[in-house]
Design goal:
mainly alpha; two-stranded antiparallel ribbon; 10 helices; 6 strands
């Protein structure tokens, strides 16, 4: 009886050992070969990531910044790609995305995909240029659209209007196609002063107002200079806009063409850059300093007249002012 018990125990142990061995073999098989392997053939690095993708990752459709892979292989944006990855055994069923893109199972492949990001590539290239030459290659020189001043200067964003994507969104596609785009800040990488503070000075060199002020200490297009005889501006000063009538484009639209031809124009605010106190607050002081004293006196006198009560007419009795719609009555 006791021998039978021992025999039964031996048989049970043998069966358990057999199943355990089969399970280990299956686990070993599932962890080797195909795109699911996390190590290369030589035992170093990783065979996952872009190199192991069932579909070749290309940038012809752009970059998916939301998922950190090219749009051409993003199954989360394009579900029609899923069967191709599954057929190639490149699929992580646990996280429902290609095994070659699963940064949850293999965090190390995130850096491999990031190398394909055009924005990162541009930053690395700019960093290499800075380290070699001491200056950045980004800025106007790297812009895929040539910056010209035929449409004026955007003082609000510090670039020519011809390349300002924040004022003209139709330009965005051209910058993205040329891989000149900062997804993080929503503007061209060549204009992103947040990522590349050094490019601000490069763009500023194209500003007509800045170059004119550097060369002449003031803007060429102001059209007038302070003179000793301030009374010569009496009656010729535009008090409403704070500039001489001779250069006031808001009162005389015929002057606009001349300012645009001199590249002195703020397309964002519709007036000469040299007069735009929104983009260039400092120019206000220059124009105020030019305002004739005679004009100030006239304005002060006019204000005084408007504030004085009307004198009673000698040929008529004074009438009281009553609300509209009510019959008027004479005062005795």
């Amino acid at each position: 009886m006791q021998e039978r018990r021992w025999m039964s125990l031996v048989i049970v142990c043998a069966i358990v050992a057999c199943f355990s061995s089969v399970g280990c073999e299956k686990k070993a098989d599932s962890g080797s070969g195909g795109p699911t392997s996390s190590s290369g053939d030589d035992g170093s690095g990783t065979s996952n990531g872009p190199a192991a993708s069932a579909l070749a990752p290309t940038l012809d459709k752009g970059w998916c910044s939301g998922h950190g892979v090219p749009e051409s292989v993003c199954t989360r944006c394009n579900e029609s790609l899923i069967p191709q990855f599954k057929d190639a055994s490149d699929w992580c069923a646990e996280h429902n995305l290609p095994e070659s893109q699963c940064t949850i199972c293999r965090p190390e492949i995130k850096a491999e995909w990031a190398k394909l990001d055009p924005a990162n590539a541009a930053k690395e290239k700019a960093g290499a240029s800075v380290s070699e030459s001491g200056t950045s290659s980004l800025g106007p020189a790297s812009s895929p659209i040539e910056p010209t001043l035929d449409k004026g200067w955007c003082g609000g964003h510090g670039v020519p209007e011809s390349v300002c994507t924040r004022c003209n969104s139709s330009l965005i596609a051209a910058f993205k196609e040329a891989s000149d785009w900062c997804e993080e800040h929503g503007l061209p990488e060549s204009q992103c002063v947040i990522c590349h503070p050094e490019v601000e000075a490069e763009w500023l060199k194209l500003n007509p107002a800045a170059s004119n002020q550097d060369q002449h200490g003031d803007s060429r297009s102001m059209g007038t200079t302070p003179v000793d005889d301030e009374s010569r501006f009496a009656g010729k000063w535009c008090s409403e806009h704070g500039v001489p009538e001779s250069v006031c484009t808001r009162c005389n639209s015929g002057l606009i063409a001349g300012f645009k031809a001199s590249n002195d124009w703020c397309g964002e605010h519709g007036l000469p850059e040299s007069q735009c106190t929104i983009c260039n607050p400092k120019v206000r002081e220059k124009w105020v300093a030019m305002r004739p004293a005679a004009t100030n006196a006239i304005d002060d006198k006019l204000k005084g007249i408007l504030l004085e009560p009307l004198a009673p007419h000698p040929d008529r009795r004074e009438r009281s002012v009553v609300p509209s719609g009510c019959p008027s009555r004479e005062l005795s």
